[in-house]
Write a structure and sequence with these properties.
The complex is a heterodimer. By secondary structure, chain A is mostly helical. Chain A has 17 helices and two strands. In chain A, helix 5 crosses helix 10 and helix 12 crosses helix 13. Chain A is flat. In chain B, helix 6 links the parallel strand 7 and strand 8. Classes of the chains: A mainly alpha, B alpha/beta.
Chain lengths: 438, 261
């Protein structure tokens, strides 16, 4: 800063300039069109081609939907209505099939007079999800979320009420054992609690359940797994597998990062094996091979087997997604947690996982969306998924023989609603958890 | 060289005979690389020690061994009467008594400033939340940022973050504080506010080990300067003797480079 410099550039403003509007060609729709559609000769050509393609698609789709028929009993009747209203050769959507058969797509072959049970289960599911998904809902409602799996099971499958109650009691037994021993030795308490719960479920639960059922025969009409189908089946498998695979995936991800050789090796082997095998292989294993290994006469519910396999499959992917989140955390976070004296579990729970999971949200939700869509693969083990199982049943009926596009568009649309909902939720969650640059 | 402008009140800076940290014949290797060689260092309660040396000399590794962020392979480290071995109980005990401040602050970005400060007291010391928050506010006032308590670390400047990190350590009521280049990632203006905080801590008689290049701080506050090179302690002395009358050639070279301009 020399003396001369400050003198030659001396300047003092005495009037402030008023705010002015930008030139017309640089604002509003004209600017947008120029920048986005016609910014050069190549882009102009691409815009025209794009507009033509869009026009062709809409020219087919718009009349098809505009001519749609919602009131008809058969495909023939539907086509007749279209021909009478719009003239011979007109094409239209026979969405009447949805109106006629929606119950089948929703409930499969679930007994019609019991439809209220899956509906109630769905309503309760939303109530159970609310405190988990939205922080504004009181935390205390989480207790209901924890109970929901048992309530949901009872509503869907029915049978004696003592089955879910006795299953729940297993968790209570395990918790009691853990509580009693936790102060003395944390690891032994966890192991003994597991053993106690397993002993309860495998040895005591059966007799206790039968005894209770005789004393107090409280039961709903039992519905067999083979009657399940449609979106009830897809949601049952999807929701169970999603809620089970996240905790399992977290454990696998932490196991893979562990310093303990055995835990690390087991986690790596599990993840790599599951990721290396197609889901269909696992489903076939669940439906066919397991029968060879289990004692003859064992009746191990097919939906339960499928849920287990889908859970394991998704958990392996979740584990890898979360590992990415763990790797993205700076080392300093671990060191700060250590330096403050937090132990391993405290550090993971309070410092590492909240941040790693936040980073992994897009990947986790992608995995969940994939999982939910993959539930349609259960058609290969004889379950009636909405996409192929139920649609084939509808198309095989004499009334709707020959219908093609409408059922798939309907099922696709419902899947889209669920998946789009999950995707929007993940974006909401990311925004809510954003902590920097606020 | 950063000069310390304020007068340092030395009335509470008393070095007692009680030993706080005893390191004897400690060695550490990274694979084949011998990072720390035969370290012997005794720190009495109330001492303010500045550790300096060229980069790669092992000074950070040395203080990170004191709370076992790094493991040593031979020799002995005794902190507050507890020897650091692979016994997790001892490690946790030492860590809850020794506070540490890092070069990159390492605040928890998903927690507010207040939550950063109350986390360890609540979960490690099992102190009730209300009491922990009171303590946290006390220390946040001390580092002069109580008004930021409900913000997140990402909203604070570097100097403020480092002061929060100091407050977070103090909330555990540690008897020893370790500083690992606390001002190296800061702008000159912010260095001053962090050094001020460290000086007031020293004035209250805290036992401190600081790895730092702030020689002004060393002259004003330290009662001993330890100079390291190539994983060894080359020279240690009072700051006056160390800066005015360095003994080894290596120290002279280092000082001429660091103070030369």
């Amino acid at each position: 800063m020399s003396e001369t410099g400050t003198q030659t550039v001396r300047f003092v403003r005495d009037t402030m300039l008023p705010e002015a509007a930008p030139p017309a060609s640089q604002s509003g729709a004209v600017k947008w069109l120029r920048e986005n559609l016609f910014s050069g000769w190549l882009n102009t050509i691409l815009t025209i081609i794009g507009a033509l393609v869009l026009f062709q698609i809409l020219r087919g789709l718009v009349p098809w939907f505009a001519h749609s028929v919602w009131n008809a009993q058969t495909l023939g009747e539907c086509r007749q209505i279209i021909a009478e209203t719009w003239g011979e050769g007109a094409r239209g959507a026979c969405l009447a099939v949805v109106r006629d058969r929606w119950a089948q797509w929703t409930f499969g072959f679930y007994p019609a007079h019991l439809y209220w049970r899956p509906v109630l289960a769905l309503v309760l599911l939303f109530a159970a999800l609310a405190p988990i998904l939205f922080s504004a809902v009181p935390r205390r409602l989480m207790a209901f979320s924890a109970l929901f799996p048992f309530v949901g099971y009872y509503l869907l499958w029915g049978g004696t009420i003592w089955t879910p109650v006795v299953a729940l009691a297993g968790f209570v037994v395990g918790y009691a054992v853990w509580r009693a021993l936790a102060r003395r030795n944390a690891l032994a308490a966890i192991l003994l609690a597991l053993v106690a719960a397993l002993v309860w479920w495998l040895l005591l639960a059966g007799p206790v359940e039968r005894a209770l059922a005789q004393v107090a025969p409280l039961a709903l009409q039992s519905v067999r797994s083979s009657s399940f189908g449609g979106f009830v089946l897809a949601l049952t498998i999807g929701v169970s597998a999603i809620s089970l695979s996240l905790p399992l995936g977290i454990m696998l991800a932490l196991g893979r990062q562990s310093d303990m050789f055995l835990i690390k090796t087991l986690s790596v082997c599990f993840i790599e094996f599951i990721r290396g095998v197609p889901l269909i292989t696992l489903l076939f294993t669940a439906s066919l091979l397991l029968n060879y290994f289990l004692p003859p006469g064992t009746n191990f519910d097919i939906i339960l087997r499928v849920i287990i396999m889908v859970t394991l499959f998704a958990a392996a992917y979740i584990a890898e997604v979360i590992r990415g989140g763990l790797a993205a955390l700076p080392r300093g976070q671990y060191e700060a947690a250590d330096a403050l004296g937090l132990d391993y579990f405290q550090a993971q729970r309070l410092i590492v996982l909240p941040q790693a999971l936040k980073i992994s949200i897009p990947g986790i939700v992608s995995t969940f969306i994939g999982l939910f869509k993959d539930t349609t693969l259960v058609v290969f083990v004889g379950l009636l998924d909405p996409l192929k199982g139920i649609t084939d049943a509808v198309r095989a009926s004499t009334d709707w023989k020959g219908i093609y596009w409408e059922p798939y568009i309907f099922v696709g649309f419902i899947f889209f609603l669920f998946c789009f909902g999950m995707s929007r939720y993940s974006m909401y969650l990311e925004r809510r958890l954003k902590r920097d640059h606020r | 060289m950063e000069t310390i402008e304020r007068a340092v009140d030395t009335s509470h800076m008393k070095v007692s005979d009680e030993v706080a940290i005893q390191i004897s014949q400690m060695n550490k290797w990274y694979g084949q690389f011998h990072v720390l060689r035969d370290i012997n260092l005794t720190v009495n309660r109330g001492e303010r020690i500045v550790i300096c040396g060229p980069s790669g000399s092992g000074k950070s590794t040395l203080i990170r061994c004191i709370n076992r962020l790094e493991e040593h392979q031979s020799g002995q480290i005794v902190v507050d009467g507890t020897e650091l071995t692979s016994d997790l109980k001892n490690i946790d005990k030492v860590r809850s008594e020794v506070g540490m401040v890092f070069q990159h602050f390492n605040l928890f970005p998903h927690l507010t400033i207040l939550e950063n400060c109350t986390l360890a007291p609540i979960w490690v010391r099992k102190i009730p939340k209300a009491e922990a928050e009171e303590t946290a506010m006390h220390f946040l006032r001390k580092v002069k940022i109580p008004e930021q308590a409900n913000k997140y670390p990402g909203q604070l400047s570097g100097g403020q973050q480092q002061r929060v990190a100091i407050a977070r350590s103090l909330c555990m009521k540690p008897r020893i504080m370790l500083f690992d280049e606390p001002t190296s990632a800061l702008d000159p203006e912010m260095i001053k506010e962090v050094l001020d905080t460290m000086i007031s801590l020293a004035e209250e008689g805290m036992t401190m080990l600081c790895v730092t290049h702030e020689m002004g701080f060393a002259q004003a506050v330290a009662n001993r300067v330890v100079f390291m090179d190539q994983g060894q302690i080359v020279e240690q002395n009072t700051p006056r003797e160390f800066f005015n009358n360095p003994q080894s050639e290596r120290t002279k070279l280092f000082l001429s480079q660091i103070l030369g301009h």
